[in-house]
Amino acid sequence: MVGNYRSRVAGTGSYLPEKLLTNADLEKMVETNDQWITERTGIQRRHLAADGENTSDLALKASQKALAEAGLTAQDLDLVLVATVSGDQVMPSTACVLQSKLGCRQIMAFDLSAACSGFVYGLSVADQFIRTGMYKNILVVGAEVLHRFVNYKDRETCILFGDAAGAWVVTRAQEGDSNIIMSSHLHADGNLGELFVLPAGGSAIPFSQQVLDDGTQYVRMKGREIFKHAVRTLTQCCHEALEANGCKPDQVDWLVPHQANARILDSVADHFNFPKEKVVMNLHETGNTSAASIPVAFDLAKQEGKIKRGQLILLAAFGAGLTSGSVLLRY
Ligand code: UT7
Known about the structure:
This protein is 33% helix and 23% strand. The chain is an alpha/beta fold. Helix 4 (94-102) links the parallel strand 4 (79-83) and strand 5. Residues 32, 36, 40-41, 116, 155-156, 159, 196, 221, 223-224, 226-227, 230, 260-261, 288, 319 line the site of oxa(dethia)-CoA (UT7).
């Protein structure tokens, strides 16, 4: 291995399950209303996996599209990486399940847990494996079936989350190719971990009747505090990526942020002094899909004809942990 290679995005794909959960549906489940949800979050509906449809199934559909667009087969892959906090089960990893479903060779496969920053973390890991020359073709997936970890009696969380998968094939760039992943910057602040948790199911609180009685199998969130940190952290991530590359905000064609809340994204655009019409936002359709959110947002914007080859794209994420990070790439 010589190193000094660069990586580029060869293909992207996404998948949203058919079933919809609208704000009108939620009005019948908890004390909320369409107007409050729309005004406070921007979300109008979320897609939910059907019974029996699991995270690896969503990941498979997105991955097949990304591979087809890259002109590669599963046999060409050197690594399968799945970013998720709602995998099929604790073990084996969802990446191993996906590797089997795709019919890959006996290549490395692992899950990455960084919540909503998972896809950006995953891209950075893939970029490192390609830069060293160790691997050539890497499948990076963000996939979540979060609705099974949401308490539909908790109106602060149940309005936010949806299920989805997004996948990118990241591959070694030709020498001199300028369409490359330019940089990645990743962070975490474990001191703020308590703001967004899913307490049960690990070794600290294994499943028991007590878990079901307490409802600790569901996500818990201090929404207002996360909101503040999200705005600050996403803005910092955007500045960090541009400063590291000597770029100015007006050179960026599209900011693709984690799709958490329209008001968070509007505030980030204000703080970053960035035009709102260049912020990719499709959370009205998807809700917050955690690790799937950025690749799905990217893919939908691409399908709409917004994102095009050769453009400068800034990805920015934050999530439970609290994790955060950015990737700047020329697509
Ligand atoms: O990937 C990261 C995951 N987490 C996030 O992105 C969450 C970030 N935070 C948010 O998106 C927002 O904080 C929320 C959407 C969760 C909440 O919006 P908010 O504007 O921060 O509302 P709030 O918590 O300040 O609550 C305002 C009021 C409260 O009533 P009172 O105390 O003023 O009477 C809440 O009880 O809104 C009430 N409320 C609701 N009302 C109707 C909270 N949830 C709802 C609801 N429907 N679903």
